[in-house]
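A reminder before we start the practical. When you read a complex entry, don't treat the lines as separate problems. The point of joint prediction is that each chain is placed relative to the others, so the output describes one connected object in space. Small molecules and nucleic acid strands, if listed, are placed in the same frame. In the example below there are three entries. Take a minute to note the order of the lines before looking further.
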Amino acid sequence: MLDFLFRLLALVRKESLSVLKDPSSRVILFLPVLLQSMLFGYVATYDLSNVPYAVLDQSRSPTSAALLAHLDGTGFFRRVATLQAVSEIAPAIDTQRALMIVQIGPRFEQQLMAGDTASIQLILDARNSTTANSAAAYVGSVIDAFNAEQSQQRGGPAPALTLETRAWFNPNLETRWNFMPALIATLSMLQTLLLTALSVAREREHGTFDQLLVTPLSPTEIMIGKAIPPMLIGLVQSTLVLLVTRFWFHIPMAGSPITLYAGLAAFIVAGVGIGLSISALAANMQQAMLYTFVLLMPMMLLSGLTTPVSTMPRVLQIATLVNPIRFGIDLVRRVYLEGVGLATVLPDLLPLLLIAAVTLPAAAWLFRNRLV
Amino acid sequence: MSASASTTRTGGFWARLKALTRKEFRQLLRDRSNLAIGIALPALLILLFGYGISLDVNNATVAVVIEDASPTALDVLSGLQLSPYFTQRNVRSMKDAERMMNAREVEAILRLPSDFTGQLAAGHGRLQLIVHGADAATARAIQGYVGGALAQWSARADDRDAHRGATARGAPFGAVTVEQRMWFNAANTSTWYLVPGLIVLIMTLTGAFLTSLVVAREWERGTLEALFVTPVRPTEILLAKMIPYFVVGMIGFAMCLLAARFLFRVPFVGSLWLLLLSSVLYMFVALGVGLLISSATKNQFIASQMALLTSFLPAMMLSGFLFDLNNVPAVVRYVGQALPATHFLELIKTLMLAGNVWPIVFKDFAILVGYALVLLTAARLVTRKRIA
Amino acid sequence: MSRPAALTAEHLRRSFVVKEARRTVVALDDVSVSVAAGSLTALVGPDGAGKTTLLRLAAGLLAPEAGRLTVLGIDVARHPQAVQDRISYMPQRFGLYDDLSVQENLDLYADLHGVPASERSARYVRLMEMTDLGRFVARPAGKLSGGMKQKLGLACALVRSPELLLLDEPTVGVDPLSRRELWQIVRQLVDVEKLTVVVSTAYLDEAERCSQIFLLRQGRVLSSGTPDSLREHADRSCFVATPPPDQPARWLQARLLDDTAHVVDAVPHAGEVRFICRREVESPQTLEALNGAPIRAVAATLEDGFMVLLHQTEPAKAAAAAAPASSPKTDGPGHATDTVIEVKDLVRKFGDFVAVANTSFSVRRGEVFGLLGPNGAGKTTTFRMLCGLLPATSGSLSVAGVDLRRAPSAARRHIGYVSQKFALYGNLSVEQNLSFFAGAYGLRGSLAVDRIGSATRQFDLDALRTTPTSQLPGGYRQRLAMAAALLHEPQILFLDEPTSGADPLARREFWRRITALAEQGTTVVVTTHFMEEAEYCDRIIIQDAGKVLALGTPREVRAQAKGDAEAPAPPSMEDAFIGIVERSRGAVAGDAAARATA
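Here is the predicted structure of the whole assembly.
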């Protein structure tokens, strides 16, 4: 037993040195993760913050001015132009100078004073339909508030029906709060997968893998020895992203760190298992890189990172059941944002452990039995 | 056969280029990994993006807790049911609803409190909407839909009151309504703008990533050494490398267009020729990046990492493909605007969805031409017949 | 009318920055060379001598840092393309496209060189005749054997007649038959077509066939001249000693080699020992190391001349080479008769391809056993099966009583293995490598420290303990690989082509260590494609195309090569190999013909 541990320790030490000794490879391991998490944090958002719009106010009345003031006051819309004629609308939108045109008709105020409904035209550039829909929804709520305010100002009653909204776990409904926790899992998985996928393939190319197999180290020991350093590195990377999430973007963590790390550990082990299997299967580094890339694409896209799994067609949803990133993201989001305990994330934890339990022994078997 | 044979040489630029290009095509077709990246991966991406990724919220489930089952309450709710965007599940108690929300069976809870009818009659009816913050985009959308549906109910209620001649509501003042028109995306689906973005991704994949891998691979294998000691010129080597991968890239483009047209029914409003021309132009840009990186690094692993980091990842994140550049901080937006992918995306989205908007066409064409010239020249300068 | 010199190099200097190692390696230092037109010139030297750099400079692929290089009257540094239009170059990695067929590769080079179509067909016919690749025109170049690839590489360089042909180590790893054929082709090019050919090689016997030789060592020209003039350095100093019949030749060779005061070099050959005496020694027959063995004088070979030159320039290193390696004590020297390795009817197939066909042999404790054969013969495959790295398709094998493939970890502790590429962890230091292998083999604590210390002392690595392995010069890497394999004092040592690319000094030193190890009871199993190194072995097996052609002591194998009793015994193992292989291939062809006509 002691023999086994000593051998393993020698291997783990060698693996760690191989990866960490060179200063440039240390940088590559940790700097990109930091930069990417910051980049994603600022880029990955579906929340509107700066919608350029133009106005064609044919009414030029105090009421229309009041309405526009409401719109400008939200801070989401930035007026880039005040149009003078209907003919200017198409060019403004076509050339993407404005994403949205608000057109107020000439009889706007009169209609309202007479108690009729006055409709304004909202023209939206749906070349990005998500943004367009969001903008429309925002405008809608601004109009509702305007209507209520105008009615009350003229002595009308408060609106009969109000809607109180409360959000669980994400009070301001910022999409960044969904992305960043997901990144804690995803970014480290990317690096870990690449690292492990190349490890055995590189040794095979350099001939050192044969040397390894001839020593008293058994394939299982080799597998464990090669799995531990990437796991630790992956956990450190996750921690970096966690720190950026918590202290740079100020997204509070609701769950317990122990649960989070337990989940992350299972997640990274699953990734390491997949990476080692790819590495053991590939004949050389080129193949290993190719397999990894081809696998990563669908795994990332179908993971729930950018769009929820529930919006995917049934077939694809079933396909994600073998995708560790899907479970990892769900697990981390739940623990980080919602603060749930281990028992609740069991449906995510178990598949991860299953993936690890299948891929790690498979890798060990492939070390010896992959016919070159 | 004497030793001084240079006099009877035939050949020259075209003969050599033809021979080299033939060799490149053969290598491309016989190495399956190249085909995997060049053809299979794009096909996979098309299917995944077309079917798997959707940024539209259109099947959210809302749990409705009716603590007060009066006709008025049900009338209010019937207004909600008219919305095609979400399904309603009636639940008996808040506890059940919260359990369902925790288990993510529903994305929101709408609660009519027990005193609803009375409050409404008194003029301050309250509805409670609880959304799940784990998916903020969906939550906002639900908030918007519910708010809108209720506003419509209010408007109709006011109309009815007005018809009945009730004036208890005080001085009449009209309400503003919004007539919205979505231009360029009649189906109002994210697929219509994701699919043009796919074209960008796929051409970047082939032009930058695949090409950089292939050329770096040849450097590593050492076959360029023997090639250099022939009359071959560096320009010929570069051109010969570009041509097959240009073809592969255009095949990817064609696959995307066909999928867009027949699978996803994305319209082509603008001119097909302009679309083709702009894709050819961007292909040159992508090839320039790939050739530059691989000639400079001469190492497969580093070349592929750099290609991913400098072209593919930015094309996905910073070009406006998934995330609208209007929403990002100014600094990030400037970085995005500096990328050729951003301009290409803008160009094809406009051409496909909006038509031939000439100011945009000219501007983006000019930028792409500039990039292509700079990158290809740089690639040529870096490729020299020297081993070290 | 004599033609001007084809190539003139004056005071060339070129160095490289090795990025991972962060140091500058001087590849060529003040090299001046002149190659006459129409001659066959050899650049000789071990790995790292600068041969490839010089050829690349001549081909315009590199620019010199200092000095001038004129090829065909053109300054290469300034007009490389002009030179490249007129010469042909075959690099070490042949420049063949694996995915393209033989014909497609040829066509490509013909197109690039602008060979007119009318000339082509005649040319191709001649090339196919020369290289015997006519049957394989449609086969992808990646699927050719090593020898065939080299021939194809040569053919591609000859699609047109260049004014100068540069060949970078065209015969490395190729079987002796193909080597001979390649040299015939080259010789013919020079004699008949009046080409100027410059060949770089590590084989001194090949250099002997050239009209001019430049000996390079560590970036400098050690010596130059005709083969005769170089041989003269060892004139009248060469002798052959006959060891007593019951002793392996290597014992006598070892003792002679150790006598650095009187002996420059000693090497076993044809069952006897060739040695070079220092000029001062008056009566060589009275040397103590001989122990009364009879000697006779012989003519010097090029290798002898080279060794004398080497010893003149680096006497200190020569002494170090002769230092005996200490090794673990197991049994006494070689009289044990127990079998440690047993192989019966071993077969290995890859699909339809039979890599190893029905091989049987056994190895006794303390024996030095050699597996010989060219690349693709099956020796590396056999080797890997012995080490447990590859499963056998059928047959049985046992090493130290167990099948290493299924054996528990404990069994592997008695094995040491040095792989072909000296597989060591490049970015780790010497010490880190050693301490990893110590740990992997179960050495811990003070034992590990002791053994690592003695290994670095013994292999002269003390000064380099903290150097990353990738920075070590080639010879030191080999030593480190051996040191790592011996840390745990294995009973059986497997060495896969441990001497390829090494210079004669390094090879002597290596075999001296092996001899010392064997003397102390370690069993050594070695593969090599240097046929002459078979002489160091107690028994050898020769494989070709997977089949066992010969098995026995070197003497027995040479006798077998004799065939019919009338022909005299061939003098060298290489000739013996060629004889055996030709006969066996002739027999195979005869069988096939017989079956065809039957």
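Discuss with your neighbour: Chain A touches chain B through 105 residues (CB under 8 Å). What might explain this?
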